[in-house]
Amino acid sequence: MKERAGIQSVEVGFALLQVLAQSEGALMLRDLALAAGMSAAKAHRYLVSFQRLGLVHQDHASTRYDLGPAALQLGLAALTRLDPVKLARERMASLMADIGHTVALAVWGNQGPTIVHWQESPHAMTVLRLGDVMPLLTSATGRCFAAYLPRDVTGPMLKAELARAKQMKRQDVPLSAPEVQAMLDEVRHQGLARVTDALLPGVAGFAAPVFDSDSHLALAVVSLGPTSSFDAAWNGRPAKALLLAAQQLSAELGHRAART
Questions:
Q1: Most buried among 7, 56, 75, 185, by the most CB within 10 A?
Q2: What tens digit of pLDDT does each residue of 231-256 get?
Q3: In Å, what is the CA distance from 217 to each residue of 59, 82, 131, 210, 235?
């Protein structure tokens, strides 16, 4: 497909706005220009126009540049129009093709983590359906929500599941508060949740969190498959692809990951 003609100067100048958007604060002209890959004189000309439009503001005391009120208005308008599930659904077909196994989306519903979209691999056996509510202790989806939602939200469900697990004398799930905490700490450390044979015998899966602009958990991106062919290693293809997709979706929703 032939690339459409555009206005090159607009594309060049936008690099300055990108640098400001990604920086942790206001920048001096020389630092801003260097990061954008242009001379200070050239950057200054663009910044004069951006100031007139309200996209950039210069502090007169420090002479540093930062994003202006018009940039804020554009950002807020874009955020209010974002539908996290719709945005994520657009990625599911390519993600399934990349991983080679079924992928799904889940949100927190009235009864708990709920499957709202399902992209099934052509070779997969159907094990879940749309609308299924996932347990917190035995599913990757549930563990993901339990790790990143406030405890006052997940507490009652966790308590009920712990009681049932103890009654059934299950050996493959956490049975005490310290064990649950260790499981959730592992999820947060790895950046995604994993189960093998816990929800269903012979099935393994991962779930990665997607955050919104307020750093709240918006949804989980899930992948699962038979243990015979699903790579359940933390550094395996499904884990890496799922984590990358979740991070990209979070960025598109306005989330800024904490810098280490």
A1: 56
A2: 999 999 999 999 999 999 999 888 88
A3: 35, 15, 19, 6, 23
